[in-house]
Amino acid sequence: MRYESLIDAIGRTPLVRLQRLTRHLKPAIYAKLEYMNPGGSVKDRIARQMILRAEQEGKLKPGGTIIECTSGNTGMGLAMIAALRGYRTIFTTTDKQSREKINALKAMGAEVIVCPTAVAPDDPRSYYSVARKLAEEIPNAFFPNQYENPANPEAHYLTTGPEIWEDTEGRITHFVAGMGTGGTLTGVGRYLKEKNPNIKIIGVDPVGSVYYDYFHHKRVVEAHPYLVEGIGEDIFPSTMDFSVLDDVIQVTDCECFLWARRLAREEGIFAGGSTGAALYGALKVAEQAGPDDLIVFLVPDSGMRVLNKVYNDEWLRENRCFEPQVKLTARDLIEAKRKRGAIRDLIVVHPHDTVLTAFRLMDAQDVSQLPVFEEGVPIGVIREDAVMRLALQGHDLSQFVVREVMEPPLPILRPDTFVDELTEHIQRETAVLVLTEDGRYEVLTKYDLVHSLAQILNPQS
């Protein structure tokens, strides 16, 4: 396609269906590749909208200076458009941002001021405060302030949302994105819910940010530092409309980085840590979704700007993020279990069965817990400890039904879950369920883990 200006090339980014990471999941998952924007990120959209809106309203005049606090991507979008329109740019950023991002901003002609990360937002040294102060002191300056500028979510309401709706032919059921300023989730969410109120909008928030606790527990917690760039906040921007959200999923730094690396290696999509967060959220949503669901997650930027971090093995090790050294998966353990003849039909109970029935079944099968299924779906687990407590208290086990004593269901994992993650779940829950490619559930316990690993790692023993 031919454009008269680089600004006109912003948007219309492709949706690409994942193939390998989702082959055992029921719904389709599509990635919205925002690094295909000319400035390399989703922030090109809001940069254009904020500048155009400011020009229309007379807030940005010829020869003016654009001053913004940015983690890098918004700055790139603003610097790109400023270069075309003859504006000066000054950006404040934090000291956790990658050197690639800072150098890229300077390459576009911007002045960059690096501020400390571990200070309160109202601290005069914070990148919010420094940007605001510069905007007050420099003549003919414009402070877009993406955290409070309504043009931020407006950009996504006018462009990103309609693109997703059109490109999925209205079939989208879930939209997942990392939570930063909230502009993407708010703008896309408002548009999609106008089209279909049943569409679920899910934010993904890193541990250390304030959003997750506020959404789920209506409490404001103090933010603490985290490593992933571009998502999470220590403030509540006005551009984040919580009423649009249906859920917020929490993610760790390491989950962000390792899922981004898997996305590159298994799908060929080379993206940053915030994409790893969105992918993690999309896969969590997919675990509970059906074959008719269509999930879209946002890929905000490329991995090029975090090469020395997310894609640097030494940096990952320094920050205690380790990729699995033994590349074994739940699928490998199930296969080893099958080879030693330990695979059998999954033994379950139903919520209306008596506790006595469950206890006799556990005793007969020599197991300490039983999954509780209803209409073919796991809804809980009954454990031997809970049954024994009732018996020791003198209760008649035949007078209680399983639903009264069952606990939340065992974790449901994908067959491609690596052993290290599976081990963490088993240590907490004693067992997990694995949903296989053919739609069956297999149970893996600590006993299975030990014996299957021994068989795989020492096949001659």
Short description:
The protein has 461 residues and is α/β, with parallel strands linked by helices. Helices cover 38% and strands 16% of the residues. The strands form 4 sheets. Strands 1-2-10-7-8-9 form a 6-stranded mixed β-sheet, sandwiched between helices. The protein has a 4-stranded parallel β-sheet with strand order 5-4-3-6, sandwiched between helices.
Structural summary, described in words:
It is a single chain. The chain has 461 residues and is α/β, with parallel strands linked by helices. The chain has helices spanning 43-56, 73-85, 99-107, 127-137, 151-167, 183-195, 211-217, 253-267, 273-287, 313-318, 330-339, 355-365, 384-392, 402-405, 419-429, 446-457, and strands spanning 15-17, 28-33, 65-69, 88-94, 111-115, 141-142, 174-178, 200-206, 247-251, 294-299, 369-374, 377-383, 412-413, 431-435, 441-445. The strands form 4 sheets. It has a 6-stranded mixed β-sheet, sandwiched between helices. The longest helix is centred in the middle third of the chain and has 17 residues, at 151-167. The model has no long low-confidence stretch (mean pLDDT 92).
